[in-house]
Amino acid sequence: MLPGIGVFGTGSVAKVLVPFLREKGFSVEAIWGTTLQEAEATAKELKIPFFTNKIDDVLLKKNVNLVFIVCAPNLHAQISVKALGIGKHVVCDKPAGLCQAEALKMVRAAQYYPTLISIINHSLRFLPAFSYMRKSIVDGYLGNPEELTLIDVRVQMGSLLGNTYNWLCDDTMGGGTLTLVGSHVIDLVTFLTGQKVVKVHGVLRTFVEETAKVNGIRKITAPDFCTFQLQMDKGLLVTATLNNHLPGPCFNQEIYVCSKKGYLVVRGGDLHGKLHKVNKNIPEEENKRAHDKEDVIYVDVEDLSCTSSIIPKPYIKGLCKMISALKEAFLPVKEQMDWIKEPVRAAATFEDGQRVQATMEALRKSSEDGCWTTVQLLTEPPDPNPALSAAVRRTAISLQ
């Protein structure tokens, strides 16, 4: 029994997501949009029977048991916590809320309802190239996994902005290359190596403050360039450069994982590797030629049934694989709300989402201060009014 699906959001992700869900046998029962007109137009386009602009209308539908939250990040925490409280499974798009405090609310809700699925859409985890890369690292292709030295990430792509001013243009609302692309990179590094980020150093810049379509009194504050270094807890160094300055809808991604023995690299959706081999019995010239070629570990030849000019192909393919994993989690059981954990074990949890959020907060602080910053994970919700709390404490002390 596959659960009925409710989708929150009417953007490009929703338009790629719904056909994939149907292809895998899921029934999409309802869609939510910020305005009724948006919701109605998308429902007609995607042939979804029910549309609304009220969050509760989707959550309270009896035939909706799994919700996909692919709307603006300011609603991610609110909808996730509410959905889990009502007893619905949740797949939330990155990032986990707008700040760590929101991510912590999501983590607490997921811990309170452990029998429900609660995962973040860090879809690169499900891309076969990265699954094989992780397996190669664990199997010792580069030697001891704890002795990795460097991960070098380069992502070059077109603009993330649309034709109108919306949350994508605003850094505080979850727009920009750090949140939309960098969050995947930060999560992926931990997924591949099992190591956690300890300290960070970053530079964020917004070079394009207005476009032909977005101009006038409002300025774009979302960063379109970012470079950062991450120091991991077992000595590994990560360096990443994310650039949104290429013309048109293009996407180039290279991720190198290096050790003293050699390297593994994912380019697009293909995985290659190369080891430093030295054979003392043949001349140096021949030895160099013999090892000029990389080992081909995985080549991506699978075509997609649904593509997008806005969302890069690796993210779409990862999303498709994640939906397949969700199908495998629900299919063997007879009850609609039952599921098995194994197929979605690789997925990013809400705790992973909070850790990514903590890293991004440290990177923003580092960019402002110009120095290395320690990643601090929240364990308690921050005090909404510290000045008032201090005054209350002083009053209590004086009364004693």
Described by the principal axes of the CA atoms, the overall outline is: globular
Q: How is the biggest beta sheet arranged?
A: 9 strands, mixed
Work out the number of β strands: 16
* Structural class category: alpha/beta
Task: Please indicate the percent range of residues in DSSP E strands (runs of 2 or more).
Answer: 15-25%
Radius of gyration: 23 Å
CATH architectural name of the domain at 4-123 and 312-349: 3-Layer(aba) Sandwich
Please give the count of helices: 11
Query: Any idea of the CATH topology of the domain at 4-123 and 312-349?
Result: Rossmann fold
Describe this protein's structure.
The protein has 400 residues and is of the alpha/beta class. Helix content is 35%, strand content 22%. The strands form 2 sheets. A 9-stranded mixed β-sheet has the order 14-13-12-11-7-10-9-8-16. A 7-stranded mixed β-sheet has the order 3-2-1-4-5-6-15, with helices on both faces. A hairpin with a 4-residue loop joins strand 9 and strand 10. Helix 5 runs antiparallel to helix 10 and helix 6 packs parallel to helix 7. Keywords: Oxidoreductase. This is Glucose-fructose oxidoreductase domain-containing protein 1.
